[in-house]
Design brief:
Layout lengths: L2 H12 L6 E5 L6 H14 L7 E6 L6 H10 L2 E2 L9 H15 L1 H9 L2 H12 L7 E6 L10 H13 L4 E6 L6 H14 L2 E4 L4 H8 L5 H13 L4 H18 L4 H19 L8 H5 L16 H13 L6 H12 L4 H18 L5 H9 L6 H15 L5 H13 L3 H14 L21 H15 L4 H8 L7 H8 L3 H10 L4 H10 L9 H18 L3 H8 L7 H5 L1
Parallel strand pairs: 1-5, 1-6, 2-4, 4-5
Antiparallel strand pairs: 2-3
Helix pairs in contact: 1-2, 7-8, 9-10, 9-11, 10-11, 10-12, 11-12, 12-15, 15-16, 17-18, 19-20, 23-26, 24-26, 26-27
Length: 566
């Protein structure tokens, strides 16, 4: 049923004073309850609701039939309060209405009853008597307790309609009701239900529901959601939330950085949250590398992988880069670590700036992807030329992919040449050759690359100082074994020289990076040595002046009495 028809039927239902029962059924997450609440609010704003009272009840967590009846009473509010949760004032109003409906004699009984011991239970047992001419929404049929039978619920619905002149809307996922409840529903549907709405919005209709904002960001998100065929409101709202988090972080960069991030965000969100087997597996998508190009080491793809790869190619996804991993983290955790996000965004930004030339590296790969022509010479020449021009901005994964392609085409000399071009372009950033610190180390499959990088890393190990290591690991979540060895081999004098020579807000991060090794529950002897030598250096600094003693104290390092007198 189209969204326009759904709206028409719900508006008609609300604007009529005829007691009736409407059922809204559809899959989880498609926005049944969301749409009902939105249209209910719209109708209230337009004064298009005939009844004066409304009650919303979720069957999830209601553990008895009596509790269900009381919940209908307790959740009742005036139509003017739609959009607000029931509270003490609404309960008092409901109780007053109940007492009025029970008459003077009952009022005298309640008035004389002890408040805590008698009043509340009495109200609960009699509460349902005051429910009449109310719009009642009963949600989550498929999640009801086993202690409440569907027959009881439907019997209550029929009573509310025929004896209390109420209008009732039932919202549920008919695919998840279970065989017994489905049979029960079918048995009583004709007697209880006046009309059914099958809520199955298209991806475009879902974006209209979930993303009412027409700003540029949500327009771009909406287009990607439609392209992926996402018709789950919950997933779309999660995408919206993360998009609003990362957009301000990325606004200073080229617009393509945000576009790629949104492109990845929508895909990862779908794969992470969807249970549809036709949707690519989340971990598969993150780790596919160059397999989608046929340049991995696998000889055979399963039928499932072939289907997933076709899906990804259709969407325009190739492989994850390090910024994509920051997107993945935001999808999984619901927030973004801004500092690491900016670092990876800047890398991509630099690549984008370089790739905007006519002979960009990205365009050169088009000769591989976009044709079955016999254009090997043109492809090799274009990629080699473009690589030389853009090597400074090419990722290690893209280096590996290019080398793999050259080797597959028996161009081993050129493959080795571009490795050296890459090394020369990054000679001022030796850390890039350390694959132990690279998230996609497993995707670097060419042995020549790994051997060349390993040699450069080994040569550089002797040159790295304590300051170099602290600059790398300060404020970060991890470090390599080599980082730890360099710090463990440093003396307290080495730490003293670093701490005394550094000026700036990074100094505290350097100190904390050293002391953290002593706080680990199962700290190794090597880690304890780092913390001990750093602590000795700080105590030495603290002895130099009362001011430095205060400065050191903030790190939890204090001088003993004998140290102060020494």
């Amino acid at each position: 049923m189209s969204l326009d028809v759904v709206k028409e039927q719900i508006y008609r239902f609300l604007d009529s004073d005829i007691p009736e029962v409407m059922a809204i059924k559809g899959s989880w997450g498609v926005g049944k309850t969301y749409t009902w609440n939105k249209l209910l609010q719209d109708a209230k704003n337009k004064n298009k609701i005939k009844f004066e009272r409304y009650s919303y009840v979720s069957l999830f967590g209601v553990n008895s039939f009596e509790a269900l009846k009381y919940t209908v009473f307790e959740q009742t509010i005036n139509i003017k309060l739609i959009g607000k949760s029931p509270g003490l004032d609404t309960f008092k109003t409901n109780a007053d209405n109940l007492l009025a409906s029970l008459g003077k004699k009952s009022f005298q009984y309640f008035q004389g009853a002890p408040l805590v011991k008698n009043f509340a239970p009495a109200i609960q047992s009699a509460s349902f008597l005051s429910v009449n001419r109310t719009i009642i929404c009963i949600d989550d049929f498929e999640r009801k307790s086993k202690h409440v039978s569907l027959r009881e619920v439907l019997g209550l619905v029929l009573l509310l309609k025929e004896q209390r002149n109420c209008k009732i809307v039932l919202i549920f996922n008919d695919e998840k009701m279970g065989e017994e409840n489905s049979d029960e529903y079918k048995r009583f549907r004709e007697k209880v239900i006046d009309f059914e709405i099958e809520f199955k919005p298209t991806p475009r209709e879902c974006t209209e529901i979930a993303l009412p904002s027409q700003n540029h960001l949500m327009q771009e998100v909406g287009g990607l959601v439609e392209r992926l065929g996402i018709n789950n409101i919950r997933i779309i709202k999660k995408i919206e939330r993360v998009a609003n988090i990362i957009s301000p972080i990325l606004e200073q960069y080229e617009k393509e950085v945000l576009s790629q991030s949104l492109h990845t965000l929508c895909l990862y969100s779908l794969c992470f949250y969807s249970s549809d087997k036709s949707i690519p597996d989340y971990e598969y998508v993150k780790n596919i590398g160059y397999g989608i190009f046929g340049l991995d080491n696998k000889n055979e793809q399963s039928d499932e992988e072939k289907e997933w790869n076709a899906f990804l190619r259709e969407y325009g996804y190739q492989h994850a880069d390090e910024l994509d991993l920051r997107i993945a983290e935001a999808v999984e955790k619901g927030y973004a670590r801004e500092e690491s996000f900016r670092i990876e965004a800047k890398k991509l930004n630099d690549q984008l700036i370089a790739s905007k030339s006519e002979d960009s590296f990205t365009k050169s790969w088009g000769l591989y992807h976009d044709s079955f022509s016999d254009n090997k010479s043109e492809l090799i020449e274009g990629l080699h030329k473009s690589f030389k021009e853009n090597a400074k901005h090419i990722s290690r994964v893209n280096l590996n992919g290019t080398v793999r392609l050259f080797r597959e085409l028996d161009e081993n000399a050129l493959a080795d040449d571009i490795i050296e071009i890459y090394v020369d372009a990054h000679k001022d950033n030796i850390a890039i050759f350390n694959l132990d610190d690279y998230s996609f180390s497993g995707d670097i499959t060419d042995s020549a690359i790994r051997n060349r990088f390993s040699l450069l890393t080994d040569e550089n190990k002797e040159k790295r100082s304590v300051r170099d290591v602290l600059s790398k690991i300060a404020g970060k979540d991890g470090w390599s074994d080599e980082d730890e060895k360099i710090l463990a081999n440093a003396s307290s004098d080495d730490f003293y020289k670093v701490f005394k020579s550094e000026i700036g807000d990074h100094l505290s991060r350097y100190v904390d990076a050293c002391l953290q090794f002593g706080r680990f529950t199962n700290a190794s002897d090597q880690q304890k040595k780092i913390a001990l030598n750093a602590t000795d250096a700080l105590k030495r600094i603290a002895k130099e002046s009362p001011l430095n003693e205060l400065r050191v104290k903030k790190f939890g390092v204090q001088l003993a009495a004998e140290d102060k007198s020494a």
